[in-house]
Amino acid sequence: xxxxxxxxxxxxxDESATELLSHTARDLPSGRHEFHKERLxxxxxxxRQDEHxxxxxxxxxxxLRLPRPAIALPLxxxxxxxxxxxxVWQSSGGAGGVRDSxxxxxxxxxxxxxxxxxxGMPQLLDRISLxxxxxxxxxVKPGQFIYVESKSADSFVKTVGxxxxxxxxxxxxxxxxxxxxxxxxxxxDPAVNDGPEGETLSLPDEQGNTPxxxxxxxxxxxLAALTTDPDKLLAKIYKETEGMGNTPDQQAFxxxxxxxxxxxxxxxxxxxxxxxxxxxxGVVVVDDAVDAAGRHGIAVARLDETSGQREEWIFDRKTDxxxxxxxxxxxxxxxxxxxxxPGTVLYTSAIMQRAIVDEMKQTPSQxx
Length: 368
Description:
This protein is of the alpha+beta class. 28% of the residues lie in helices and 24% in strands. The chain is built from nine helices and eleven strands. Strands 1, 2, 3, 4, 5, 6, 7, 8, 9, 10 and 11 form an eleven-stranded antiparallel β-sheet that branches. A hairpin with a 2-residue loop joins strand 3 (145-160) and strand 4 (163-179). Helix 1 (15-27) runs antiparallel to helix 3, helix 4 (121-134) packs antiparallel against helix 8 and helix 6 crosses helix 8. It is globular, with a radius of gyration of 20 Å.
């Protein structure tokens, strides 16, 4: 985009749970399923609280709220997360506390709830699509690895004994490496790993299983084979995520958002994702949103009316480059813990680096 082109106004455009997770990760080398694992532990607790304290309204599905990415859990993610949740339910005996992760805790994260508008939303997503198409985005060659460095934090309901309070896991850095086919990788994240050296994400697992990549568990090679026609792409997303989430539209939006985070959509697919998102009902523009690194931007968002949570994809106002995303509680709902009030930031992230490197655990600065 020409820098001199006038731009419209932004409005227009318990310990057993943790131990089980650790053991499961070793039994099924699935660090990749633990993308933002710190949220999983908090949300397992949240789910247990919902089960213990609430009953779904007639016709309302109880949703298993996995961590970001909620759907794009590469390869072993979905199966392992399900095993973890099942184990936690069996070992916890109902509601109870979940041990803090390996990062410090503090008060709940809060924010001003930004105003929304539908005005200019298609134009904003068009600009974002053009920016994505213009960005240098080399292919991943055999033997190379996708490297993503991000910062993240989250709020969660912390229960000790019979007392619950809203807390947060501190902002922390995570580094992920993954091969193009998704069978090799490494994770360094203080919220997940037992030590600073990190852990392997490589497959097959100890049972010799190598799950095939899917839209719910993508690899770069899988994404490279997807259609770049926005209508066909969106139809595929709706079909493959049928029955997930609270509504089909929200799940489609979440699925696309997940692919913007810890993955590397090929150059041809990246703009198609934004064009597909523009076709989802209920998508709005948020005038101001802040990512985990404190960078202000304009957001493309959608409200999950069942949970009262708004998922926001945050973009730089000048360059339209994706910065990060966050989930904000904007209204009460029957499925929301009473402690989680409007303005609570349930999850926030910021992409700091995304690059292609030649070796596992190599960083862009080392590659340079």
